[in-house]
Structures
1.
Amino acid sequence: MAFIFTLSSIAQVPQLPEGGDKDLHALLYAGLAFVVARALTGAWRTRLTIGLVLATIAIAGLYGVSDEIHQYFVPPRQSDVMDVAADTVGAAIAAVGLYVWSGIIRGRHDL
């Protein structure tokens, strides 16, 4: 979260290709979701539940909202609802991917 906050504090960001901004948002928030999910489970080998997946997505999505509010106060940056959507989609993809992966790993240990 501190890394994302620091990036949001930069007034002049490099120009990205069309749509590249949303890809970057999704990638950053996928990373955040990975860290949040692991923190919520408390261990690498603990299975991720649907509840924890939803909590991970909610935490990352709410942080995305707070990040856009923060950017509103960083001239000449601006807030964008589509950035929040990209943040949430990236977090959801990572959280669901971890859920599937934890099921596969858990399945191997049950054999």
2.
Amino acid sequence: MPIEDAKLAAWQAEIAQEFESEIKVHFAAEEQIVFPAARTFGELNPLIEDLLADHQWLRASFAKAEARQSSQAELLAFTRRLSEHVRKEERRLFERLQELMPKEELSKLGHALERALESASQVCSLPNPKK
């Protein structure tokens, strides 16, 4: 679905706000907690490298949106890549970790991730009245 030119700045502002309030913390938690745990299983290393490349690309896209320099096409590519990234984590990384990790380790990992994400969950996102 195309983004109207008049709404492009609002979309970029919302994307930048989401990154600051939630996604930045989420990426950091994955990189500091989940990915190192996953690296203990050699078969997951290529997937981790792919997810880290996604994080790098997505961070650059968030920065471009924050600077209000994203085009419609770039915002659409961004939304596709972010959606694919989330599916990749859920369907490939997390499912495989559930198969490979002992339940006790998986539980510890889950608790550590929960603690790391607490700051993001306590942020109150206000609706954008210009939507």
3.
Amino acid sequence: MVARLEPVKSISKPLSYNEEKVSQGEAELIHLNNFLQSKNRLTYSEKIYRFQHLNELNTRSKIKMLHATLNFSPADKLSNRQLSAIADRYMEGLRMANQPYLVYKHNDARHPHIHIVTSLIRPDGSRISTHRMANRLSEPARKAIEREFQLTPSHRQKQSRIAFPDEVQKINPASTTPVSESMDRIMATVNRHFHFSNFHEYNAILRAYNVTVETGNPGSKTKRHNGLYYIALDDRGNRISPPVMASQLPSRLTFSRLNERFHHPAPGHLDNLSSIRERIDWALDQRPATLRALVSTLQGDGIEIIVPPRNGRNPHDHIFVDQRTRTAVTGTTLGPDYTTEALAKTINRGLRTTHANQQVTPSVEGARFNANVPQVLSAIQTKPGSQGPDDFGLDQNLGFRRKR
């Protein structure tokens, strides 16, 4: 079993997320505690009111809600009754057995998992401390539940050897492996085997594995404390799971640890950059008539191009991710001949710009790309033979990925 805790400010955020899953047929409310009505008769307004009534007793605290997720192995065949009992035992382990809470079973992944929504405010107005709750309370409760209910133990801690890049698969929503485990395996591999010198380059490597990392919005607690959280994505960059704080994952790739990497380049880093320049030069010497042709040639040489988010909040030049040298580097760092503008001019297309606050998302068959995360350029190219722009500056429809 894998447990994850997410303290949140808003009542509506965790509640609406789960209720929306229920309305879509991807979840069901299977259990509740300390509510007057039964789960079949309880309305959304009554759920909101129950939590709001408690939260109004404490005007000082900003973080008043807790959203917990318990993930189980596909081998664990658990009934709703067993899942409800596990939820009660877990809340007892968090010393929150007397709090009102709702338990939702989700059916949107191949492994069973439940979400628990509760308030951190007690009836006397005091707030339940979440300081180190994951280590102090959640982890002992998780281990006890695995023994008591004879669940498949979490094997995250047993993973001693860090996998090589070719052994690691990108995040797949249909996978039976819990998202947090897949995410941690990817992060450990990237940290061990790849070279990067800044946050954007690190994020570009992760994006190729359908993971992105964020520092929080300006003024947020995460931003103020240099925190990081990781998010699992689908191929179009849309979220498929709640964010996970870096400190909650075994690899613990926090901002401070990454900063050490940024200021201490690996031996041979300059040689890697020279190799990337040589292969880009060779691709340009082939006189590609379109951006698609350039991207395809680079892919055949193990190089992907990652473009920044289209929302304009984190502007930076495109990034080359080279699987051969396991290096990520921005075009700007490589030199003036490798920037977005320079490459666009080389293929005689010209650079087209969009307003920084304009969110344009490419689409195919009704599916949209997320403008808030980096995108792999080869994935958002127009299909061969179709009409539309073939340029860095404009969004494109999903194209065929080159098989290797």
